[in-house]
Design brief:
The structure holds 2 protein chains of 2 kinds.
Chain A: H1 2-11, H2 13-40, H3 50-53, H4 61-67, H5 70-107, H6 113-125, H7 128-139, H8 145-152, H9 160-163, H10 165-190, H11 194-202, H12 207-235, H13 239-244, H14 256-266, H15 270-298
Chain B: H1 2-17, H2 22-26, E1 62-69, H3 76-89, E2 93-100, H4 104-116, E3 123-127, H5 131-136, H6 144-147, H7 158-163, E4 165-166, E5 169-170, E6 173-174, E7 180-185, H8 186-191, H9 203-215, E8 222-225, H10 235-247, E9 259-260, H11 264-276, H12 291-300, E10 304-310, H13 313-320, H14 322-328, E11 329-332, E12 344-346, E13 350-354, H15 361-371, H16 374-383, H17 397-400, H18 403-411, E14 415-417, H19 424-439, H20 445-460, E15 465-466
Parallel strand pairs in B: 1-2, 1-3, 8-10, 9-15, 12-14
Antiparallel strand pairs in B: 3-13, 4-5, 6-13, 7-10, 7-11
The chains are: A mainly alpha, B alpha/beta.
């Protein structure tokens, strides 16, 4: 048994050596902080006050507090709406549609294709904080472009971020993130040989049937991975929302990552903030398991 | 003669404050020549030495790291002046200045992260309301041994000293005190049919004036700005909720130090918020980044009629256009529910602290002394209008000749202060949540007041919260 194990280790030595730099970096920058957060979620660690001088082990107190926190349900609901709105409907579906359109246009050599491609990409290459401020410049009540436009046509200004805060942040995040999904789907679509479609066309299949029977099954494994990464990234988004509404008005756009940030760095309650991020990590893991199972089952 | 009296007072004060430093008492301020001769000190503090005026040649060496935030750009020249004075007095010392052009909240978070990781500057500049939580975290050095040998300390009145005293020790040196005014635009109020020397008879009078401005339908004039929610930062508490609570006869804490959640006064404040956010105060306050920037600007140019704000805000308007500001901006104290004596909200303002982990505390103290001469304190507060913390600083001509500064200083006699309690920052957060809920129309006044108790309990623990 031991010999067999040693033999296997020997055979895989090169493979393990190649894997270890990545494993080391992951351990350093992901597993380490995650373990630290789990550890500190059982303490009353704070950045200031008595708890900063003498952090204590408090067992499950933080978790008990979180699950009786009347705001937490609201925060989870906001996160779910934000993820469904901006990740699944927005980035994923819109990104897929854009990719199909661009692929169609490219295969026919339409002139404006590269311009559209560049425009979508531009939104994505901006750092998030700049994307955030761009949308602040659009939505701002007093000096924003949207209200300036309304002023030109003689309409009264609209309090965009106050009346539809969740819709506003969903639009901004969709605008920012759609390019990523589009890029991936575009790459996948290019791997589909044209003769499949030609054969289908000869058989008299409609455009929808060609998409449903041929394109979609080929895209499915990629789609599962894209959905996973977009969902997780969106679940962890907070810079964009922080810039636009900072969670307001009155918790209407407070998502879980922002709540963790606010508790840890605004309220200086690091232990409680860690607890929220541990719950977030657990939810992300659950997403990952579901999506990966789904993609394997169909592959 | 004066000098002798001052020394006796200093000694007595010192005895009160630190029981152990018997040796230090024997050394009069001018006799101290080196830090080590100051004798034993309370645990955690280093011996103080050096003193007013006389260079104690070579007593201070090495680098002194100074860190402070400034967005307005008024402080750097005085900080540099103080740094130059320290370097001139102690040729072996160097002063490194880290000016952070960020808001106070961001600076504070950055500073806490640095202090938490065991780094950070020797001397820094943050709000006096943080004294309790910084001292409890052991981030800052008690200054009793330093001030006891500082002749100038006698210039700080007892009320000011109390404001920076927590658990029996002095923790920070204030220079400009906070006070607040209810500002109003005379032009906007007159167009709404009110007097130029408007004076609200009671709290309802503020809402009545705002309603009159609203009904006057002036284009581009916001009737009233009442800070609410987390976006309003500490202004949601100090410029809005707290004065209203006091106006309605409520208190933040009861006599045993428990924080008061739901109470008749809290409900009245929430009802006031509901009325204000029913078309008088803009809802954009809840979602704007730093809404006070827009609100201050608008009051300055007549697009906002009523605003309760820090006394220092007047400086921005006056420096832009002094004549127009004096003509159009009126300021009154905060009224109460039934026309009782008006009042203002006071505070120790921004203060200088020494890090407990500093390796150059003596140098840090020398910088604080150089930064807090009567001249610098007077000039800085004349430019960035605050009542001065040391009384002799008010004697400089720039300060004495300004009616606004004189009025602000006089108003301190009617100021109520919040206690330097380490729990206050968590209370502010609960206040932000409660006010946002009413302002956004999510909860009615009574429910919001009840939730305020729940939020306080969540943040501070049931044993520290009560309702009335």
């Amino acid at each position: 048994m031991a010999v067999a194990a040693r033999g296997r280790l020997g055979r895989n030595r090169l493979y393990l050596a190649g894997l270890s730099p990545a494993a080391f970096l992951l351990a350093l920058f992901f597993v380490g902080p995650a373990l630290w957060a789990i550890g500190s979620s059982f303490t009353n660690r704070a950045l200031v006050g008595l708890d900063a001088a003498n952090p204590r082990f408090v067992g499950l107190d933080n978790y008990a507090r979180l699950f009786s926190d009347p705001d937490f349900g609201r925060v989870i609901l906001n996160s779910v709406i934000f993820v469904i709105g901006s990740a699944i409907i927005g980035q994923f579906v819109l990104g897929l549609l854009l990719a199909l359109l661009l692929d169609y246009a490219q295969r026919r050599g339409f002139l404006a294709t590269s311009l559209v491609y560049a425009a979508v990409l531009l939104a994505w290459v901006n750092p998030t904080i700049i994307a955030g401020f761009l949308w602040v410049a659009m939505f701002d009540f007093y000096n924003g472009s949207l209200n300036a436009g309304l002023h030109v046509v003689g309409a009264p200004p609209v309090n965009w971020l106050g009346q539809g805060p969740m819709l506003a942040v969903i639009i901004a995040n969709t605008w920012r993130g759609t390019a990523f999904t589009m890029l991936i789907f575009l790459g996948a679509l290019r791997t589909i040989p044209s003769d499949i479609y030609e054969a289908a066309r000869v058989d008299g299949a409609s455009a929808f049937r060609r998409f449903w029977d041929h394109t979609l099954p080929i895209l499915r494994p990629i789609a599962a991975l894209t959905l996973l990464s977009v969902t997780m990234a969106t679940f962890g988004t907070f810079i964009l929302i922080q810039t636009l509404t900072n969670g307001g008005p009155a918790f209407q756009t407070e998502v879980i990552a922002l709540y963790a940030f606010h508790e840890a760095f605004q309220n200086h309650a690091v232990g409680y903030g860690s607890t929220i991020s541990v719950v977030m990590l657990a939810l992300n893991l659950a997403f990952a398991v579901v999506f990966l199972r789904w993609s394997r089952a169909r592959a | 003669m004066d000098e002798v009296v001052r020394q006796i007072i200093t000694r007595r004060r010192f005895l009160q404050l630190s029981a152990v430093s018997a040796v230090a008492v024997a050394c009069s301020p001018s006799a101290v020549s080196s830090p080590s001769s100051a004798g034993s000190a309370p645990a955690g503090s280093s011996p103080a030495g050096g003193s007013g005026g006389a260079p104690s040649g070579g007593a201070v060496t090495g680098t002194i790291n100074v860190s402070y935030p400034d967005e307005a750009g008024l402080k750097p020249k005085y900080v540099e002046q103080a740094a130059a004075a320290v370097k001139a007095q102690f040729p072996g010392a160097d002063v490194k200045i880290d000016l952070q052009k960020v808001g106070d909240d961001d600076f504070y978070t950055k500073l806490l992260l640095a202090l938490d990781s065991g780094t950070g500057p020797d001397v820094f500049h943050v709000g006096g309301s943080s004294i309790g939580e910084l001292a409890d975290a052991s981030y800052v050095e008690p200054l009793d041994n330093y001030v006891s040998q500082w002749a100038d300390w006698s210039q700080y009145p007892d009320s000011v000293r109390t404001g920076v005293t927590y658990k029996g020790s002095v923790w920070a040196i204030p220079y400009g005190l906070d006070m607040r005014w209810l500002y109003y635009r005379k032009d906007d109020l007159q167009k709404a049919g009110l007097a130029a020397d408007w004076q609200p008879a009671n709290v309802q009078g503020i809402l009545d004036a705002a309603t009159a401005v609203k009904n006057a339908n002036e284009t581009n004039v916001i009737p009233y700005a009442l800070y609410a929610g987390p976006a309003g930062s500490s202004g949601t508490a100090d410029h809005a909720f707290v004065p209203l609570l006091w106006a309605y006869g409520g208190e933040l804490q009861d006599s045993s130090g428990k924080w008061i959640g739901d109470s008749p006064a809290t409900k009245k404040v929430m009802a006031y918020y509901q009325k204000a956010y029913n078309g008088l105060s803009p809802k954009e306050i809840l979602t704007s980044t730093k809404p006070w920037t827009a609100m201050r600007e608008k009051l300055g140019n007549g697009q906002l009629a009523l605003l309760f704000e820090g006394g220092w805000v007047y400086g921005g308007w006056a420096s832009a256009n002094k004549a127009a500001t004096e003509q159009n901006v009126g300021y009154v104290l905060h009224p109460t529910e039934n026309g009782g004596p008006s009042f203002t909200v006071g505070g120790p303002g921004t203060c200088w602290y020494i890090s407990s982990r500093s390796t150059n505390k003596q140098g840090a103290w020398e910088f604080i002394k150089a930064m807090n001469t009567a001249e610098i304190v007077g000039k800085l507060n004349a430019e960035d209008p605050h009542p001065v913390a040391r009384t002799d600083a008010a004697d400089i001509p720039e300060f004495k000749s300004d009616p606004y500064l004189v009025a602000s200083t006089a108003a301190l006699a009617k100021a109520k202060f919040t206690a330097p309690d380490p729990g206050y920052s968590k209370v502010i957060e609960a206040i932000q949540k409660a006010t946002a809920r009413v302002a956004a129309g999510e909860l009615g006044p009574d429910d919001a007041a009840k939730r305020y108790t729940d939020d306080l309990t969540q943040a501070l623990g049931a044993d520290k919260v009560t309702s009335q």
